[in-house]
Specification:
This protein is an alpha+beta fold. Helix content is about 50%, strand content about 20%. Helix 1 runs antiparallel to helix 5.
């Protein structure tokens, strides 16, 4: 656990340590290379100075000894002194180069042209010492010059800096290669470490994920994992085991005694199980027992485990799962109780009951079946084949199938036993392919049937006696039939006359509307003076009176025509969704000029969003007639109001006025065709008396109705009742029947 705790810190520290080490190693290498370069240059300066001084001394000695002067004057210089690009030049007094090491350099030229004109060495000679000059080729070089006695002039020792540092560069390159190799090795080691750490984390994550899935699966399956180390006497429980029993984990392992104390004493103990496993009498365990839960309840568990040996010492471990079977035990107990109750119920019924399985073997039967067929107990053992039991059954004397319709896989028949008893046997196939058979003793019913047959014979004799009196009844029936026929003829004549009246009214209405349209058109043309003035204002008033009278007559004819079509049954409703608020607003707008001319106030309380399935034209007519009547019978200064309410699945439209009201005895006559009610004797009532009748008939065609409430002198309320959805034809017919009744 300690290594796991410091592992995150190691992941952070290792990269820092590697980076610090690489930086330190690089810094040391850089400082070392810089110091080595300086040392190399210092050594080169010293070597050049020594070589120049040595050469000048040797040449001065050779001149004093009268040595031969030629191009091989520098032959005494050791070869190892000329290395890493170092070379020497010897000049005469006039400045020409006569000798060089290595040979052939600048021969015939001057020292100034060889070293460059900007250098001070040829002027100051050994006073300048060893300095850095720029050669004519542009390369930097270390050089020094020494003056010589005649006939020689000067000797120069030159070494390019780049060649002087060649060895240093080789060593530095080797150092850089070693540094790169070290960095590569460290990087590889770090990468391997982090990759291994990543793999370890991935493995831990996979293990954790697998463990969570395993715990979730065990928890959902109401089971837990056991690992019993028998040698050490410790047990490991999974988290699902603790969750199943309601305990909290206090340590990684539980002792043998702690677990044994939780086991129910009647279900054995773990000591005997350990002895059995230790004696190698068993290697697997499948045992059901009870364990006390945290709340004190006993939980039934079924433990299934196997003995395995692992580790260096091959210690025995009992590894397996424990499944919660409390619900199964409870269901098994309930099933046993239900089975016992079912057997008791089957035993107590009065019918003979027998059940066969899909292999035609006996499952169970009651004592009534056994007594009915005089069967011995060994004959009715469960599993007895049908053929064996059929051989012991009492054969029936008479057997016939009933004609009553039954479902597929079932049959019913009657059988008579040798002792004159009758049975009605009903058989039905069960869902598992077997059969259930119930036999009912119908002996009493058969006896009653015989008595009924005897009564039928007696009744047949009585019917023969009644046939004689039937002739008299037939004569009376013939007379009644003649009367009914005459009634039907008279009824047909009345209906024919009514249809003729309706057709006459419809035809006459059409015939009258044709000249009226001409009268109205010409009166409007004359009143408007389209073709010129009439010459007198009286003529204009006469034309206005003609137009108003024609319009009144045209409206009257339209009402008569509508009433005739309604009575003839030729009106068809074209239903469509109609917004009630829009229809109320349109009706109010149409009647507003008339109401204002009479000095009346109009108001409306529409129901927003109400949609009724109705014939739009019919709804306009109904609202127009109701508002026209309200305005007509309301005196000046009165009020007319229209309200809309939704009641259940219906829409009620109330037209209220503060008019003269209707006498109570006159209410039954309203809404009948051509019925008038005298509201005021001093003012004769105009109109055809068809407005309310048309409104009521149209409302009933919609499946609704019309109701009137009035109080004489206080006003009238007319309610138009319409269903929001179109009713069925049966509902409309029942509404009409109630109106007729």
């Amino acid at each position: 656990m300690k290594l796991l705790d410091i592992e995150p810190w190691l992941r952070r520290i290792v990269p820092v340590l590697v980076a610090v080490f690489v930086v330190a190693l690089g810094s040391i290498s850089y400082l070392n290379a810089s110091a080595t370069r300086e040392e190399t240059l210092v050594d080169a300066v010293g070597d050049i100075d020594i070589l120049a001084s040595y050469t000048a001394a040797e040449l001065s000695r050779a001149i004093g000894a009268d040595a031969i002067l030629d191009a091989r004057a520098l032959g005494f210089v050791p070869s190892h002194a000329i290395h890493d690009g170092r070379f020497m030049l010897l000049t005469r007094a006039e400045g020409a180069v006569v000798a060089s090491l290595p040979g052939g350099l600048y021969t015939g030229g001057t020292l100034v042209s060889a070293l460059g004109e900007s250098q001070p060495l040829t002027t100051f000679a050994d006073k300048a010492g060893v300095i850095v000059i720029t050669l004519p080729s542009g390369a930097k070089a270390l050089a020094t010059v020494r003056d010589l006695p005649a006939p020689y002039g000067q000797v120069a020792v030159v070494q390019p800096i780049s060649l002087a540092l060649a060895t240093w560069r080789q060593r530095t390159t080797s150092t850089l290669i070693l540094l790169g190799a070290a960095c590569f090795v460290l990087t590889a080691i770090s990468t391997a470490y982090f990759w291994q750490a990543w793999r370890a984390r991935q493995a831990d994550a996979i293990c954790d994920k697998f463990r969570r899935r395993l715990d979730a699966a065990l928890s959902r399956g109401r089971c837990g994992l056991w690992d019993w180390d028998i040698a050490r006497g410790t047990l490991y429980w999974s988290d699902s085991m603790y969750e199943m029993l309601g305990y909290a984990r206090e340590s990684e392992f539980m002792s043998f005694g702690e677990v044994n104390r939780l086991v129910h004493p009647e279900d054995g103990d773990l000591f005997s199980l350990a002895d059995t496993l230790a004696s190698r009498e068993a290697t697997t365990v499948d045992h059901a027992f009870r364990v006390r839960a945290a709340d004190g309840a006993w939980v039934w568990l079924r433990a299934r485990a196997e003995l395995v040996r692992d580790g260096e010492n091959r210690d025995p471990h009992l590894i397996g799962i424990a499944i919660d079977i409390t619900e199964q035990r409870r269901l098994a107990q309930q099933t046993a109780t239900a089975d016992m109750r079912l057997r008791e119920a089957i035993e107590t019924i009065s019918e003979a009951f027998v059940l066969w399985d899909d292999a035609n073997q006996l499952v169970m039967c009651n004592s009534k079946f056994q007594k009915l067929h005089n069967l011995l107990p060994e004959h009715v053992q469960p599993g007895t084949p049908y053929e064996t039991l059929a051989a012991a059954l009492t054969p029936s004397v008479v057997q016939h199938r009933l004609d009553a319709a039954v479902e597929a896989g079932a049959r019913s028949y009657e059988a008579q036993l040798p002792d004159q008893r009758w049975l009605q046997i009903n058989e039905r196939r069960t869902k598992d392919g077997g059969y259930v058979s119930v036999g009912t003793d119908i002996t009493l019913l058969k006896q009653q049937e015989e008595r009924l047959l005897d009564s039928e014979r007696k009744l047949t004799a009585s019917v023969a006696d009644l046939k004689r009196s039937r002739q008299t009844l037939e004569m009376q029936a013939q007379q009644l039939a003649d009367l009914a026929e005459r009634y039907l003829e008279q009824k047909a004549e009345a209906e024919s006359a009514n249809r003729a009246k309706s057709e006459f009214l419809a035809k006459m209405s059409h015939e009258l509307r044709t000249p009226l349209n001409a009268i109205l058109g010409f009166s409007e043309v004359m009143e408007a003076g389209i073709f010129g003035s009439l010459g007198c204002d009286k003529y204009t008033d006469y034309c206005r009176d003609i137009r108003k009278s024609g319009e009144y007559l045209l409206g009257l004819i339209a009402d008569i025509l509508d009433m005739a079509e309604l009575e003839a049954g030729r009106v068809r409703m074209h239903r469509e969704p109609v917004v009630a608020e829009e229809m109320v607003s349109a009706a109010m707008a149409a009647i507003t000029p008339v109401a204002h001319s009479r000095g009346l106030s109009l108001s409306a309380e529409p129901l927003a969003g109400a949609v009724v399935h109705a014939d739009k034209r019919a709804l306009e007519k109904m609202l127009g007639h109701l508002l026209s009547n309200a305005v007509k019978f309301t005196p000046e200064g009165g009020k007319v109001m229209i309200r809309t309410r939704r009641i259940g699945g219906n829409l009620n439209i109330y037209v209220e006025d503060t008019g003269v009201g209707i006498p109570k005895d006159a209410l039954p006559k309203l809404a009948r065709p051509f019925e008038w009610v005298a509201m005021d004797a001093s003012k004769p009532t105009d109109g055809s008396g068809l407005g309310l009748a048309i409104a009521r008939s149209l409302a009933e065609l919609h499946g609704g109705g019309l109701r009137i409430r009035s109080c004489e002198g206080a006003g009238t309320i007319v309610m138009l009742h319409l269903p929001l959805k179109p009713p069925t034809g049966l509902e409309i017919a029942s509404g009409r029947a109630s109106r007729v009744g």
